[in-house]
Design goal:
The complex is a heterodimer.
Chain A: E1 9-14, E2 19-24, H1 26-32, H2 35-46, E3 60-63, E4 77-82, E5 89-94, H3 98-104, E6 109-113, E7 120-125, E8 128-133, H4 143-153, E9 160-164, H5 167-170, E10 178-180, E11 184-186, H6 191-197, E12 200-206, E13 210-211, H7 216-232, H8 234-241, H9 247-253, H10 275-281, E14 283-287, E15 297-305, E16 313-320, H11 322-328, H12 337-350, H13 354-369, H14 388-399, H15 404-409, H16 413-420, E17 428-429, E18 432-433, H17 441-449, H18 455-458, H19 460-466, H20 472-491, H21 504-513, H22 520-540, H23 566-584
Parallel strand pairs in A: 1-6, 7-12
Antiparallel strand pairs in A: 1-2, 3-4, 3-6, 4-5, 7-8, 9-10, 9-12, 10-11, 14-15, 15-16, 17-18
Helix pairs in contact in A: 1-2, 2-20, 2-22, 7-21, 11-13, 12-14, 17-19, 17-20, 17-23, 20-22, 20-23
Chain B: E1 3-5, H1 16-23, E2 28-29, E3 35-39, E4 47-51, H2 59-62, E5 69-71, E6 77-79, H3 89-93, E7 100-102, E8 107-109, E9 126-128
Antiparallel strand pairs in B: 1-9, 3-4, 5-6, 7-8
The chains are: A alpha+beta, B alpha+beta.
Chain lengths: 585, 135
């Protein structure tokens, strides 16, 4: 990397001692670039083996990459921590302004350690870190309000990030997310709860430092090439026009849209909640992450009358994406767009992960329908697919851990099903509630063997759409190859939507502009090593392929590739197990 | 010539203009960008584009005690850094907040009206030169 590039500065913040310091860590960034690569090394260093995820021994790592702030679409932040949901590797990515803010403040990574005794929030302004009293923010009903307050009280408008948790994080709901810039989320695996356990309500970061480049002329030429690709390519156009919600009708068509807790993979009311429908009737604004021309963030404007006064309306702006429509729409049988948007708004206000929340409520609904739980458990509510009004109340009870049953649900569907039963339709993979791609074996195996059990680890849904009848070796081979390559992308922190632009040759040129010399082979070498380091951490924390639970439901529902066989999935897991065990040696 | 804001409502807040401004000088990041996009109170409400509008009779120059800012014939100002004492009057004098500050040099950062940023606005928010619409 270029000498004096602030990328190698790591900011350490110790909440217990209320002190901070910076360390120069080119030892990590030179080799692992940034993002996922740097984060996993820092996590290995800072996270005590077998620690309780809610203890001060669990650190929170944020990291950005060498080309963040140099090239478009390299604006994700990788967050790493030990997940309170899976008790293993926690890794979550988000965009917004967060990456640009961290890089501009002069850091490649931020490590937050320890815990505070009282509610606190942190403000990072270039070289300064301020520990501020968070009591006034703690307990606020909505993450929107927290954002509004901090927008006024903190500096740096236009070049800052405001990350905050909601009530879900405060209540240690194990799938609470961290919200950034109101509409983007470190959603998965419970980062919000880790914040909550540290009494850390928010993190505001701003700065305006410059980033050096190797050859200005070449840099500008390369920039123009990437800019042209990003603004003219069909994929980018698709995400600009309708957004990720464009996939709702597409996945429904191919029998891949989880519906009614995955009893079905097609939703009869899909046309009411499709991306096209929402764009035509509700879309109010599109916004972009920092340094990204695409603007895939789609926000609905929902006009709602007040009941107590005629002609008195409020218009609220509610973000929607494919995953939210799946988890809080089809999965719950909600085909009424206003109802869907209201639930999304409430989930946003609480700061819970939409996917996990939807899956937990869908599970509970089926439990209730099958008589495995009663109104005694649900505190009088009668959850029913499609009944969005009930889900609004149900959600409140869940976030507030109202009774024993809701408390179990707040710990995730894996935990709840251990206590209340219904494991066969408790849809979690590796302990993480399922994403919305019911495409077939590639999807399922992808969730199971991915380092963070996310659909984005290895895009198994994509393999299902391109191939069928692959042998276990072939399928797992494809998934691992994709996951390895994605380690480079997520270490550069480029958005996965732009993976068609950031091919190895372009990556090599971009890295050269940032002072790194890595050809395609060298990139793949680093990629493999990063993934291996993640699995080292996973094994260290007790992960085992044998322990992965397969919910029976996935063998009964239709997928794009028909019914999936258990035996086949087990064989795939054995192949993956073998691969990582050999690497471990 | 100056930057015209054609329609701020089209702005998605991508910051590409800000990065372009700095990149023109051969660097990455946002230091010394003379254009700023900020939300008008949450991203959902839209954005403000803050950039020098090349006033025909620029107030910033009027309050400069050392004539470090000189009005240009067709509007706007030119900065003569060797004359600047870093008093910051110009910043206070600009009600558009379009004069930024370099804290290391302790001098203002002012648009040079090159129009480079407008080439990188993918959504038709800003344009270079006069247009029929916009401000």
């Amino acid at each position: 990397m270029i000498k004096h590039d602030s990328l190698s500065n790591v900011l350490y913040i110790d909440l217990s001692k209320r002190e901070f310091y910076t360390k120069e860590r080119s030892d990590i960034f030179d080799k692992y670039l940034g993002g996922s690569g740097a984060a996993i090394k820092l996590l290995q260093e800072e996270c005590k083996t077998n620690c309780d995820p809610f203890s001060p021994d669990n650190p929170i790592i944020f990291s950005v990459g060498p080309i963040t702030g140099l090239f478009p679409l390299a604006s994700k932040v990788v967050a790493m921590f030990k997940s309170p949901l899976t008790f293993n590797l926690g890794e979550s990515h988000a965009g917004g302004r967060s990456a640009i803010a961290i890089r501009s403040a002069g850091y490649g990574a931020i490590v937050i350690k320890g815990e505070s005794e009282t509610p606190i929030y942190i403000s990072v302004e270039d070289n300064d870190v301020h520990f501020k009293d968070g009591s006034a923010l703690w307990g606020m009903r909505s993450t929107y309000t927290v954002g509004r307050v901090l927008r006024q009280s903190e500096r740096g408008s236009g070049t800052r990030t405001i990350m905050r948790i909601g009530k879900a994080g405060e209540k240690l709901v194990r799938y609470a997310g961290l919200t950034t810039e109101t509409y983007r989320h470190f959603g998965r695996l419970g980062l919000g709860a880790v914040f909550g356990s540290k009494k850390l309500k928010a993190l505001v970061i701003s700065g305006r430092s410059s980033i050096p480049v190797k050859n200005s002329k070449k840099y500008k030429e390369l920039y123009d090439q990437i800019y042209d690709d990003a603004t003219k390519s069909a994929v980018m156009r698709k995400y600009h026009d309708i957004g990720t919600a464009v996939n709702v009708s597409r996945l429904n068509e191919i029998s891949a849209l989880p519906t009614y807790n995955l009893q079905y993979s097609k939703f009869d009311a899909v046309d009411n909640i499709s991306g096209e429908k929402l764009a035509e009737e509700y879309l109010g604004r599109r916004i972009a992450c920092g340094h990204c021309p695409v603007a895939c963030i789609h926000i609905a404007a929902l006009r709602v009358p007040y009941e107590d006064e005629k002609y008195f309306f409020k218009t609220t702006m509610i973000p929607y994406d494919y995953e939210l429509i799946y988890a809080l729409g089809s999965m719950l049988g909600i085909g009424y767009p206003n109802g869907l948007l209201k639930i999304i708004e409430l989930v946003e206000a609480y700061g819970a992960d939409a996917m996990s929340t939807g899956v937990c409520m869908a599970y509970a609904t089926e439990m209730f329908e099958k008589g495995k739980i009663s109104e005694k458990d649900t505190a009088g509510l009668k959850p029913k697919f499609g009944n969005w009004n009930t889900y609004m109340k149900f959600l409140k009870n869940m976030i507030e851990r109202k009774n024993k049953f809701y408390d179990a649900l707040a710990n995730g569907v894996e935990y709840a099903s251990k206590i209340y039963g219904g494991k066969e339709f408790a849809l979690a993979f590796g302990g993480l509630e399922m994403p919305g791609y019911n495409t077939g074996p590639g999807g399922y195996v992808g969730y199971l063997i991915g380092a963070r059990h996310s659909h984005l680890d290895n895009a198994g849904y994509d393999v299902d759409q391109k191939h069928k009848d692959l042998s276990p070796d072939a399928l797992v081979g494809k998934l691992i190859a994709e996951e390895e390559w994605r380690q480079i992308l997520s270490s550069l922190v480029v958005c996965f939507f732009s993976r068609g632009i950031y091919k190895p040759e372009i990556v090599q040129d971009c890295l050269a502009a940032a002072g790194f010399d890595l050809d395609k082979d060298a990139q793949l070498g680093v990629a493999k090593e990063i993934l291996n380091e993640k699995f080292k951490f996973k094994y260290r924390e007790g992960f085992s392929f044998d322990k992965l639970r397969l919910p029976e439901r996935i063998f009964k529902v239709d997928t794009l590739r028909g019914k999936v066989k258990k035996d086949y999935i087990r064989k795939c897991l054995a192949v993956a197990d073998n691969y990582y065990k050999q690497n471990k040696k | 010539m100056r930057i015209t804001i054609v329609d701020a409502e089209r702005c998605v807040g991508c910051q590409l203009c800000m990065f372009a401004c700095v990149r023109r000088g051969g660097k990455g990041g946002l230091l010394d960008s003379s254009i700023l996009i900020r939300s008008i109170g949450g991203l959902e409400r839209g954005f403000r584009v803050i950039v020098c509008r090349a006033c025909p009779d620029p107030p910033c120059a009027k309050v400069c005690p050392t004539e470090a800012l000189k009005p240009k014939r067709d509007g706007g100002v030119k900065l003569y850094p060797e004359k600047c004492i870093g008093c910051g009057n110009c910043v206070d004098g600009c009600i558009l907040n379009a004069i930024f500050w370099n804290h290391e040099k302790n001098k203002p950062v002012i648009c040079v009206y090159c129009g480079y940023c407008t080439k990188y606005c993918p959504h038709g928010v800003i344009a270079f030169g006069k247009t029929d619409e916009g401000d």
